[in-house]
Amino acid sequence: MKKINLVLLGATGSIGRQTLDVVRRFRDRVNLIGFSVHTNVQAIEAISQEFGASYAVITSDINFKSEDLSILHGEEGLIELVSLPEVDTVLIATLGTIGVYPTLQALKLNKRVLLANKETLVAFGEFVNKIKTGLLIPVDSEHSALFQLLENRKDEVSSIILTASGGPFRNVPEKELKKVRPEDALRHPTWNMGAKITIDSATLMNKGLEVIEAYYLFGFPPDKIEVIIHPQSIIHGMVKLKDNAFMAHMSYPDMRIPIQYALFYPERLQNTSLREVDFLKIGHLDFEAPDFSRFPLLPLAYEALKRGTPYPACMNAANDIAVAAFLQHRIKFTDIYRTVESAFDRCRGKPTTLEDVEQIIKEVKEYAKEFIQQIS
Ligand code: NDP
Ligand code: MG
Question: Is there a domain that residue 317 lies in?
Answer without folding.
Answer: no
